[in-house]
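ingest -> validate -> predict -> emit
validate: passed (alphabet ok, no gaps, 130 aa)
predict: started
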Amino acid sequence: MTKGVFLILMILSFVSPVCADRHSSYYEKQNFYIEECEREDGKLSIEFSIPVHPESVTRENIRINGLPLPKNIQIFFNRRGDRVMFSELPQWQNETICIEISGLTSYLGSPMIPLPAFYLAPDDEFEWED
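emit:
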């Protein structure tokens, strides 16, 4: 074996474990969960760790006070697809509401990490705690 080939094999044996660590941290970042939910100015905004699949966001999957979102509420997505927003109904605006979100998938098909129902007061926010 020549010195050049030996040197390349030594470098590859050092780089390979480093690359494996970098790739495993990449996959850890692919967990799909709610990073933040915020109520502000009569709007509710839900931010996810990675883009949500828009077809998985249905009125049944987002429940307010135990009821699915009404048909007259329009759901919006930001350009990156990691935020869902909608206007609140007038009866919610001065009340604490119970929010339940389930059954969503990421754009790549990962199921959302389950989150129990939580309560948000007007102009309040919920942040995921790692």
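The beta strands are 34-40, 43-48, 62-64, 67-68, 76-77, 83-87, 97-101, 118-120, 125-127.
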